[in-house]
Amino acid sequence: MSDRIELLLPIGESTAAPGARPQLAPRLQSLAGATIGIVWNGWHCMDVLTRELQRILVAEHGAKEVVALQTGTTYPMRESELLHARDHWDAAIVGLGT
Amino acid sequence: MNLASTRISLADDLDAVIEHFHRQGYTDGLPIVPPTEARVRAMLGGTGRAAHASLGRIEPSSHEATIEKIAINAVMAGCRPEYMPVLIAAFEIMTRREWLLGSMQSTTNPLTPMLILNGPIRQQLGVNCGAGVMGPGWQANATIGRAIRLVLLNVGGAAPGDVDKCTQGFVGKYGLCVGENEEESPWPAFHTTRGFAAGDSVVTAVGVNSSTSIHDSSDRWEDLLKTLTASLISPGTANVVDPYSTPVIALNPLHARILADAGYTRERLQQHIFDRCRIAPEALSGRRTVLRRGEHGDAVFMVDGQIPFTNKAEQILIVVTGSMAGGHSCYLPNGHFGYAQSKQIGD
């Protein structure tokens, strides 16, 4: 009798059927010259951090432009906002706020 | 059918296995049932869905909530296989984009999904709808609620204190699953107000904050309404700053019957709360006033210069649960995330 026990991992893995997995956009090798979006939900004091992120991305990483998009706290980005981001941003920082 | 999850090999010692899962952050702090392949396959036998099928992504990690992963965490939680359809229906709700699960997973609010079960499923699974309904003692309630939380932790990545920034949390974050006490309720079952037939088995998922006790042992409906109304007026609760919220008023059957005997239907009670539970704008702090600005570009919703409990009376969810003993009901605020949605439970 084995003194080992085999268990299945409970954490998320890419175990979905291949057709169900979305394709991620290619990662940027550099932020230089990029237009970056920051999506935040208007939560307390996030505006302060957003301004600092904008400064850092331009001053230290050479981003061309950093756009801050404030959504509501009770709904995700609107379809029109998602499409605009896809068409005009090179990268995005999302999920900020509470 | 091959199971796709990675396998780990550990010393076949229960204490060592539990310790390993604790150290890896796979638990809620309580011991788990080791998810062997045999146990997971048995759990998968509780549903006709394919193991690799995905119900959607669990934010913030964006990993897929596959039937297999739900089964693994259900084993850990101590579920029976027959609980799987409830879990599946619940996650089909919670992975909907508009439910904002990702925000709920990382918020500082003491927020957790609450499952409300209606219909024959309650008897089929032995779901507690009576005494101590939000407390310990019933395997179905305890483990279904716990399985939900373990999936949110392990598949969604919401590690407490890390990704999950909840300031204090509350006990509902171990799991919160209740059955409506339809049999002792004076009103039609809650799920029939949401478009389902009385004979349907339905789960409603709603994100709730820690509960507020509403205690009044009077048998006079006037007293009860006075206490109820006053208890709901609280500038610090989530729904005050979110007019689209779906707060839960969990009335015990005794309170419900006192009100029903006085002529209150569920709808009339909703309207009463909407009409009477108003907060003066000056009762809110400056910051909460800012938060209450129109989320959808609308002007702040006010009625006669007062802030109502919700935008519409029908947003107030009145569920009858608990026992007839004692005048104890409670209110569970909802706001910002996890507006109530209901789904029929399939296989």
Structural notes for this entry:
The complex is a heterodimer of chains A (98) and B (347). Chain A has 98 residues and is of the alpha/beta class. Chain A is built from two helices and four strands. In chain A, strands 3-2-4 form a three-stranded parallel β-sheet, covered by helices on one side. The longest helix of chain A has 14 residues, at 46-59. Chain A starts with a strand and ends with a strand. In chain A, 19% of the residues are buried. By secondary structure, chain B is α+β, with helices and mostly antiparallel strands. Helix content of chain B is 31%, strand content 17%. A four-stranded mixed β-sheet of chain B has the order 5-4-6-13. In chain B, strands 7-12-8-11 form a four-stranded mixed β-sheet. In chain B, strand 2 (54-58) and strand 3 form a beta hairpin. In chain B, helix 2 (37-44) packs across helix 3 and helix 3 (67-77) crosses helix 7 (139-154). The model of chain B is unreliable at 294-299 (pLDDT under 50).
| Topology order of chain B in helix (H) and strand (E) letters | EHHEEHHHEHHEEEHEHHEHEEEE
Percent of residues of chain B in beta strands?
15-25%
Order the strands across the largest sheet of chain B as they lie in space.
Answer: 5-4-6-13
Helix content of chain B: 25-40%
Q: State the shape of chain A.
A: elongated
Strand content of chain A: 15-25%
- The strand count of chain B comes to 13
| Uncertain segments of chain B | 294-299
How is the largest sheet of chain A built, in terms of strand order? 3-2-4
Structural class of chain A: alpha/beta
Q: Report the total helices of chain A.
A: 2
**C-alpha end-to-end distance of chain A:** 51 Å
Question: What assembly state would you assign to the polypeptide chains in this entry?
Answer: heterodimer
Return the string of H and E elements of chain A: EEHEHE
Query: What is the β-strand count of chain A?
Result: 4
Mean pLDDT of chain A: 84
The most extensive contact between chains is: A-B, 28 and 56 residues
